[in-house]
Amino acid sequence: MNAFNRVVAVLVFLSLLVVFIIGAILPFQVLAALRHVADSLYAGLSEWYFASPMLFRVSQAAIVLAAILVWGTLLWLEVRRGKPRTVQVVTAEGGKAEVLVDSVALRLSYYLDQLADVINVTPQVRSKGNVVHVAVDVETTPDVDVPMKTQEIMHVIREVVEERMGLRLGRVDVRIKHAPFPQETGEPRVTGSAG
Question: What is the pTM assigned to this prediction?
Answer without folding.
Answer: 0.56
